[in-house]
Amino acid sequence: MLFLGIDQHLRQLTISMLRDHLPPVREEPDEVEKLTMDEFEVKSFVREVVKSFERKAA
C-alpha cells in the first residue's frame, strides 16, 4: 500500500514538472505548403503507416 502512494506521488510530481517545462507557443504560418502524392516517394511502411519518405527531385 505504501508503494502505491509513493508511485502516485512521483507520477503527479513528474506531470507537474513537465507542465512547467512546456515549449513556447508558436503562431502558425499564414500559408502552409501542401504536397501532393506525386511530389514524394514512400521509402518504408510500418503496418500500412508511412515510416519514411523523401521528396522527389524537381
Give a structural overview:
The protein has 58 residues and is an alpha+beta fold. Helices cover 31% and strands 24% of the residues. The protein is built from 1 helix and 2 strands; from the N terminus they run H-E-E. It has one helix spanning 2-19, and strands at 40-46, 49-55. It has a two-stranded antiparallel sheet. A hairpin with a 2-residue loop joins strand 1 (40-46) and strand 2 (49-55). It is elongated. The termini are far apart.
Strand content: 15-25%
Question: What class, by secondary structure content?
Answer: alpha+beta
Classify the helix fraction into a percent range: 25-40%
The helix count comes to 1
- The chain-level mean pLDDT equals 76
Number of DSSP strand runs = 2
Radius of gyration: 21 Å
Could you give the distance between the termini?
A: 63 Å
Q: SSE order in H/E notation? A: HEE
Protein topology:
Layout lengths: L1 H18 L20 E7 L2 E7 L3
Antiparallel strand pairs: 1-2
Quick tags:
31% helix; two-stranded antiparallel sheet; single chain; 24% strand; 58 residues; elongated; alpha+beta
